[in-house]
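Continuing the series of single-chain predictions for the mutant panel. This is the parent chain; the variants come on the following pages.
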Amino acid sequence: MGNYPDALIAIRQVLRQDPDDEAALPEMLIIGQAIHNPSVEFAALEGLERIGRMPVFVRPMYCRLLLLRKRKQQARRVAEEGLALLPHVRISGKRELRRFFSQLIDAETPGPPTQAGAHIQATARTRTSGGGTLGRRPPGGPGSRCGYYGTEAAGRSPAGTGRRRDGRR
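Parent structure:
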């Protein structure tokens, strides 16, 4: 483990000099995830959004934090942009991301609140890992034993036992 508080202080000093530093913002996001500080994560994600360098795979996390801050229109805009970018990026887990963005866009349509919208908002309040639904971190996200959409999402054993979840090798 590193010395995250000192690293965070150093990154904030860099960002005071240049708020759009493309190297410091992702590092700040990583530190925010490591110390489980949503306000640090949100500040880093807002910076990445401001400079237009937010990767598609972190947009669900940004949408979740926007919903927690009752910024539904901005969350919907971020989801629409993410959905538009999906065909142009090469990442695994596109299906889960497409489902997430579509659920958010469909749930946030103007009109009377529906039961599905209430479910999405209730789910957005959770801070757990796993799953690919709104308000939850994607499989393999921070807090799991593998990288984004890594071994757990592929059905392989995260512990390296050589056995898949279905028992096959």
